[in-house]
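Give me the fold.
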Amino acid sequence: MVWGTVHDRRKYSRAFLDLPIEFHINGVPDAHGGIAVDGSEIGFLMYTLQNIPEGEQLNLSVMFPNGFELANLEARAEVVRRVRQKQGYKYGLRVVRIDKDEHIK
């Protein structure tokens, strides 16, 4: 399987993104940043410098353009896959909670 092709066996189609993410790790007051590089109805692929263990839940705010301003999509996601990169980490995030209004976004 070639990464990102239409021959992907996933149940939900993915959209390629390049959107900033701000996230909070449970119990840590500071916000961290990352980049959403793709997403679907059920999750995101995110790059960040933060080392986060699999199973950790994050409060996400994905920022995207809406006309001439920025809008946020708020969700709670779980780290289901972690891959160490040369610089930082690549994470598979599964959405575990999202409000109906946010899901529409």
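The beta strands are 15-25, 32-39, 43-48, 57-66, 69-84, 89-97.
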